[in-house]
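Figure-free illustration: sequence to structure, shown twice.
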Amino acid sequence: MAYFEHEGCTLHYEEYGQGEPLVLLHGLGSSCQDWEYQVPELARQYRVILLDVRGHGRSDKPRERYSIAGFSADLLALLEHLNTGPVHLAGLSMGGMIGFQFAVDHPHGLRSLCIVNSAPEVKLRSRDDYWQWFKRWSLARLLSLETIGKGLAARLFPKPEQAELRRKMAERWARNDKRAYLASFDAIVGWGVQERLGQIRCPTLVISADHDYTPIQLKQRYVALIPQARLAVIEDSRHATPLDQPRLFNQTLLQFLATASTTSQGSLSSC
């Protein structure tokens, strides 16, 4: 368990293994704990770095407005603190948004990028967009975190054999600080870097669950905007793919990283 400070906020991070640095970023309302099925396998080959995003897990939860750009700045500060040089970066959901932001702001800081069940923008354009977001915004404020956690757990892990995953998620979600959770929720809406995706030059893998919140077609559209990107679809999975399909997820990520490591050596040495 380790900590560092950035702009008056104490942030928690963890490190495992040795090798090329690989950062894993969790989603909204989550923490380092949600990579529990990845760390043992990935740390055999990589220096795995986990960060509790500001407002989450063991990191401080300052009473301020949060932003995806601010989360990205925290990540940059951590990498400078650890003197990692360019890293491989994998982000789930909101962690993927932070990954997109980091990739366009600091392209030379990445060896590769893996985006899991995420998107490069959350813009409200239609009347239905505004209505759907208003419903989510209202429920997030009206319901307790315990209720939200149980509802999400049931939606993400609906199978009878996933009872333990449902229990874990509901329990972890209830530990969130509600004010920080809502500030992070608000940081997402209106954010976007889709118009800058062409600036991402590192090898990029977009992983989509076949039953994610957003359709595969949406991922196909933004993958086409990234020069070195490809899409991988994991079947029988929902939004929390690293938890509900850990074996397939780890296999897919490791295969990509092996190729990306070889590709990035040439590009890094020429920088």
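We now fold a second protein in the same way, so the two outputs can be compared directly.
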Amino acid sequence: MDPALTPEQDAVRRTLREALAKSCGIEEVRAAAAGAQGYDPALWRLFADQLGLPGLTLPVQHGGTGLGPVELALACEETGRALLPSPLLASSVLAAALIAAHGTDEQRATLLPALASGERTAALVLAAPPALALGLVPRRPPGLPNGTVAGGGRAGGIQARPGPAGDGAGDTAGGDGAAGAGGAGAGLGGGWLVYGGAGQVLDGARADLLVVAAHTGGFPRSRTSLFLVQGDAPQVSRSRLAAMDATRAPARVELRDAPAVPLGDPVRDAAPALAEAGLLAGVAVAAEAVGAADQCLARTVEYVQVRKQYGRAIGSFQAVQHRLADVYVAVETARSAVYYAAWTLAQRGIDGAAGDGPGEAGEAGEVWTAVPLALAHALDALRTAAAEAIQLHGGIAITWEHDAHLYFKRAAADELLFGPPHLLRTLAAERARLFASARG
């Protein structure tokens, strides 16, 4: 791995940082998060038109810029630094990546250009917690029932069945699912019906398109399949939830026999595709955490240089310097881990190893441990940086209204949605088979 950025990569980071500094200060973040959309649509379209942010990693033939995970990490580091409320993670990283990897040629050609241009947004609906459904934590963590999957399992969660207009080909033994997919599946109506509900759907209250992970196949052929559902369909009920981190804007989505079209082949198990999307999402969330932690550190260093106690700036005290040095080391090592995880993911795509699973040994399977470890380290760094920012700002940072608490809430919310760090490290240890000899 070459740690030096290319001129193109440096331009991505520099351009986005300058744009965010001009138009996305803390007050703008608060106003956008409190708005009806949960983000500033005009700013999102501006970033789409001038920077191509929504389509950063999407193919050029579908309206994207065709860049890779490293460039995505650099962009997310800057959006995390500003705590930008946007559909970037939910629409551009999760939903669009699944459409690009799992959809048919016609579905990709129809849906991706609108997502890449920022004209439309999408959200991924998961009945299970995001960290579990995306394969970022062990499949059976403590406190969750065994067998929990992205679609919710054999009972409960979100279920899908062929509707009156479908011929059931997607659920017939040996069928190829072409008829159940409605041909290319570009339209969104008829063929299948999805029923159930999911909470903590990122940007679920405002997305135009829902990519729903649902349980299909019944008891003998249990699997998770992906479906496309119109966000404004009458059978869809969506409500924005009160959240600790208002910049993430989670929602509760209820589906009552909503018309759906399979994303790709409904016979194909979508669990591997969700795990692949989890790798990209893990890099994006980790990069956002690094950017937020770096901003916490910068603001705290600036404050301790002007805050005086006993006639001296508190930044001159050795104890304060030691605490900030620990934060600096945590942020820089987390940044290195994130860049390495993004690089391994990019190399994996270049080498054509997209089909390698989590158990693959050697360089091809290294990304399956690098991503959860980087995410765990980044979440720890953000929590440490946010806590130290509150402590070193003293009494003025005790109230929720202080800016430091925006970063503290982001740290707590990210751990709840995509962690916690100890389970991320547990998964990495299992994939690396660190304790296989002990069990044997």
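Summary for the second example: Residues 141-148, 166-187, 351-355 have pLDDT under 50 and may be disordered.
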